[in-house]
Design goal:
2 copies of one chain form a homodimer.
Chain A: E1 14-25, E2 28-36, E3 45-46, E4 49-51, H1 58-70, E5 78-85, E6 96-104, E7 118-125, H2 136-151, H3 155-158, E8 164-166, H4 167-178, H5 184-193, E9 197-203, E10 211-216
Parallel strand pairs in A: 1-6
Antiparallel strand pairs in A: 1-2, 1-4, 2-3, 2-7, 5-6, 8-10, 9-10
The first copy, chain A, binds a DNA duplex through residues 166-168, 183-186, 188-190, 193, 204-212.
DNA sequence: CAGGGTAAGTGTATCCATGACATAAACCTA
DNA sequence: TAGGTTTATGTCATGGATACACTTACCCTG
């Protein structure tokens, strides 16, 4: 019983991770997808993912697959396991169980190209993705729901933005995730009341009145990851 | 690519389930534990659990292990996957990843005895368990937290009780899970306002004024399981 | 059968968070 | 300098949560 001794019926269960990685792009929430080049569902778009190494943490596997398949180099600002999908038959190759993760990449991280085993990698609008391989549509739906829930704790929305940002920009992030419009005045009230933001120097010279720039406060308490 | 072809480095990852099963007993929240009879951590108490079969749903494996190891025959009123633990080294036998589940058993389900591979099975106070094998203390802590969160949706507390129950009994369940006292009047107000309970005939002749009996309303909408 | 013990049951006032809503201020450009 | 465009701001009504003390109903015992 010292080295691994599994019952024979359990020996062929494969363990994988899949990652729904989100980022803001032109005011819309986007999700990172890869186009499969081989295996089942070739040519079809799918969430980045793959098998977990023998000595690998689950979240490490998620990060590795994200980098290998999409050439995204930046560290995700947030990475969170949210559900494990294990229905028999979800993968035609055999019994494969996938620990699904939700990730947030900072604004503007959109330069991706296919890597190992995939022919392309691109951002798609998260609420209206193309047809997806396997049960990835369900995984994506659950990831979106989790993202929306996490938004209540409000810290997470900041991870989509650069270090300094305006309140309208932050509101745009919330609206893109929730897929609905919010009231400007109430949004400001609520966000500023939380005391997570501090103002700095003015900026944003575009059209109309310039907007105040904010940055996030030091970080009083860390949310449960 | 038709039969399972995994990269060699992933071949020896074992997939297991563990179950934190809760029930009310004498006014205290209890968790069901088994005493291991062999393997690592023999003699030590642990959450019921074991390996997932090749053609088995995850929640089916959880139910099966619960029955096999503890002789609990009743259906859990609630079963929910809540986190997957996969740190290398969490099990000395090798790389074993465990999909952890939280279950609620109805009130009074206390007749258990050890089954396959365990020498005993007993209920313990959930907030003050004995030393546990592997990382089961952490799994139990997370299960408790999830149970507390689910309490907000308030349906779940009813699953701990028999079909008819009094408001003080329901309050006792909430207090046992949250590990703090609640105000009687506010509790009634809140619970009755939800419209999930309907009164029936009076009863409960014990000491003091008799308490009104309630039962849960049909079930308007099913919570996400 | 009366009084004491015990637990169930009830109402009000306050506070805080949320949502609806319209106008003024700052900058840019033509 | 006038018009366009976007940021910024305050009030009122509503609903939910919290704090808090006394009355009612039944049982048991003397």
């Amino acid at each position: 019983m010292d080295t691994l001794t599994l019952p024979p019926r359990a020996a062929h269960v494969g363990l994988a991770v899949d990652v729904a990685a989100f980022a803001m792009h032109e005011g819309t929430l986007h999700v990172l997808l890869v186009q499969r080049s081989s295996g089942p569902h070739a040519e079809v778009w799918a969430l980045p993912g793959g098998f977990v190494g023998e000595r690998e943490q689950l979240h490490e596997a998620a990060l590795r697959e994200l980098r290998e398949e999409t050439s995204v180099t930046l560290e995700p600002r947030h990475l969170e396991q949210f559900y494990t999908f294990g229905a028999p038959g979800r993968d035609p190759r055999g019994r494969i169980v996938s620990v699904a993760h939700m990730a947030v990449l900072p604004y503007g991280t959109v330069e991706v190209h296919g890597g190992r085993g995939v022919q392309d990698a691109k951002w798609f609008p998260a609420h209206t993705p193309p047809p997806l391989a396997f049960d990835h549509q369900e995984i994506l739906s659950r990831a979106l729901k989790r993202l929306q829930v996490r938004l209540e704790y409000a810290q997470l929305a900041l991870e989509f933005l650069p270090e300094t940002f305006t309140l309208p920009e932050l509101q745009e992030v919330h609206e893109a995730i929730l897929a609905r419009k919010l009231d400007k005045r109430n949004f400001r009230k609520r966000l500023l009341a939380q005391g997570l933001l501090i103002a700095s120097g003015e900026r944003r010279s575009g059209v109309g009145r310039p907007a105040q720039l904010y940055r996030r406060v030091k970080s009083l308490r860390r949310p449960q990851l």
